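Predict structure. Chain length: 308.
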Amino acid sequence: MTDIEFGLDTFGGVTRDAEGKPQHHAQVIRNIVDEGVLADQVGLDFFGVGEHHRRDFAVSSPEMVLAAVASRTERLRLGSAVTVLSSDDPVRVFERFATLDAVSQGRAEIVAGRGSFTESFPLFGFDLADYEELFEERLELLAALLKEEKVTWEGRTRAALTDQEVFPRTENGLTAWVGVGGSPESVVRTARHGFGLFLAIIGGPADRFAPYIDLFERAQDEFGCRGSASPSTRPDSSRRPTSRPARRSTRAGWRCVPRSVASAAGRRPRPATSSARSRAGRSTSARRRRSPGSWPAPSRCSGSTGST
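Prediction complete.
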């Protein structure tokens, strides 16, 4: 059996008021909380909030925003989109999301990734030259922590752990994903560590990502972790505005996010198309579960042989 779940996520981009002026970061954050509440009321399954550390985005601590959403909702799954794991401490990531899981009655989900920008590296004292190693080591450690057992780990980018326990414990484990932007190596690494695949389709046609889902499922079979989690996709909204005022109000915000992401990554943005319109940083997301409640612990396959 295959189930489709629908959700909404936001980068927390600074929006504009009725007069066209940028809203204060505080107001943007309050608006995001209200959006999460509305998502729960209309029956969506998931609400994700991104992490950024720059002027044009309001949210630097998605877990805090999600905790506020949790206090006003009942069924909505709550996750980051994404937690910038490369410049964070996996121990603190686990502790924060285990706490969110407690206050939300088991609805917290981690979506770990590299992020679309690099401002967090100098902010937190990391060298961009260690970009690959930071993510690889932190993902490996997070996978070990998700087992909620004593952890012994050693790497180059943080202090070693020896038979270390981390608290608080969760009641039923944490669901964890890795946000992937389209690298085959990242897809295989995600399967190797036993995480769910969260495809970040920020621009372009969604069907070009289908081979990555096939690759992920083949890698799951190879590493013996088929069924640990199913792919999730984050496509741009495909509905078109039906009036000129709606087009004007959404076009600028929709265009600015792909452009800013592409600029930060050193590449040209894809041209806008009339079939993909979304508000600034907000997209629909869909993910597939094979059967509700059947996912083992996300770190089940961690430690399997193989390399990305």
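Summary: The helical segments are 25-41, 62-70, 90-103, 120-123, 131-145, 184-192, 210-223, 244-265.
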